[in-house]
Amino acid sequence: MVQIEILEFLREFNKIKKEYFIMRFAKGLETWIKNRLPDSLRDRLNNNKYRYIIKKEKPIDLIVHVGAHYAEDRFFYEELGAKNVIWIEADPDTYKVLKATLDSHPKSHTTHKIECALVSSKNDTTIEFHRFSGDGASSSIYKAGNIHKKRFSDVRETGEVVELKSKNLQTILNLHDIKFNQINKSMLVVDVQGHELSVLEGTAELISQFNFLKCEVSRVEMYEGGTKFVDLDSFLKNNHFRLSSHPYWRVPDHGDVLYSKSEDY
């Protein structure tokens, strides 16, 4: 019995190993080819293909960005024709910079709204928020995993932990009186350093109102206990979204992907 189990394990292990090496070879070959293409073609094939796809869908009337940081994408969202952008940032210190940035931003056809809130699945839960060095872009409710420490060796936890009260996304959108029946196309952006699944779970039925969802994902444990891509993907499939920025074998270990609502819904 034990021998049979060992043989089954070895067969499964060899299968996984073979798939892994095929994936790594394919990615290496893709990189080699892309580096020899003109810039115009390379933009269509790189890991940030989401911009190429979403530009073809403009105008995007409403964009909700959870994990706003300093609103680095504000000009791009205006390029997409957004009428309203809601920026949501958890860290009160980062929020102050965000507010100052948008207060001095040139006026345009886009209305930028801001909210200081730690978005999670439930309201009024006290959650510890770990601050990281640098500009705070890596700050998270989770501690850094070993892979994060190795890959971003110049970014560390400062040791400062602040307690923040949570809000779910449905509550925030209701406060801003968002009427999806008056919106043609909308996009939800989630960049919250491992807390992505909880944010999406807090949208309740409103997730079906979004046409597109851009999300930072991790196949590996960048943060201790953080969301893994396989769980996020399963949740979005169950809510009738499909991965549109990558074939599955090209999804990065850590990076951005774009989902689109399935055409049947």
Task: Describe this entry's structure for a reader.
- The chain is an alpha/beta fold and 265 residues long.
- The chain has two domains: 1-46, no CATH class; 48-261, Rossmann fold.
- 35% of the residues lie in helices and 23% in strands.
- The protein has helices at residues 2-34, 39-45, 49-55, 74-79, 92-103, 146-151, 169-175, 196-201, 229-238, and strands at residues 62-66, 84-89, 111-116, 118-119, 126-132, 157-167, 186-190, 212-218, 241-243, 254-261.
- The protein is globular and about 50 Å long.
- The mean pLDDT is 87.
Task: Itemize the secondary structure elements and their pairings.
Layout: H1 2-34, H2 39-45, H3 49-55, E1 62-66, H4 74-79, E2 84-89, H5 92-103, E3 111-116, E4 118-119, E5 126-132, H6 146-151, E6 157-167, H7 169-175, E7 186-190, H8 196-201, E8 212-218, H9 229-238, E9 241-243, E10 254-261
Parallel strand pairs: 1-2, 1-7, 2-3, 4-6, 7-8
Antiparallel strand pairs: 5-6, 8-10, 9-10
